Amino acid sequence: MPYCPQCREEYRTEATKCAECDVALVSELPKQAEPKWVQVFAGSFADATIVRSSLEAAGIEAFVPKDSVFPDAGIDMETSYGVEVLVSEEDAAEARKILQGMDRVESEEVPPGEGPQAKEGQA
After folding, report:
1. What is the chain's Cα-based Rg?
2. Do 48 and 16 share a structural domain?
């Protein structure tokens, strides 16, 4: 079967050109290098789920390795720590920027007596 070397679509034997990419088809696809995965987060299962979802919403492929989650061990998945979120090495810098932004939002606590409610009481 012929394949497109760009989009990696498989074609019927009689096809010679990719309909999408407009390039000549090849008989075998070259092996793709496996991406190198790096950890960008470790924490509770609940937080890891939020982090993974946020990264994927930003277009960054992220996953939680099965060996960092132990659902059969009777561990409380909401409070257990050590659950990792991994991204490809090429996406790591962008992922960390996104996570820094999340960190600032979560850590910005308004001291008592300040903020919109305090101003309403002064009026």
Report:
1. 23
2. no
* pLDDT greater than 70 at residue 24: yes
pLDDT (0 to 100) of residue 105: 40
- The domain tally of the chain equals 2
pTM greater than 0.70 (yes/no): no
Q: Which residues form the domain of 4? A: 1-30
Shared domain check, 46 and 82: yes
The burial of 41, by beta-carbon neighbours within 10 Å (0-12 exposed, 13-18 middle, 19 or more buried), is given as buried
Please give the pLDDT value at position 78.
54
Residues 26 and 46 in one domain: no
Contacts of 18 by beta carbon, 8 Å cutoff, 6+ apart: 4, 6, 7, 9, 11, 24, 25
Two structure tokens written together for 102: 């999340």
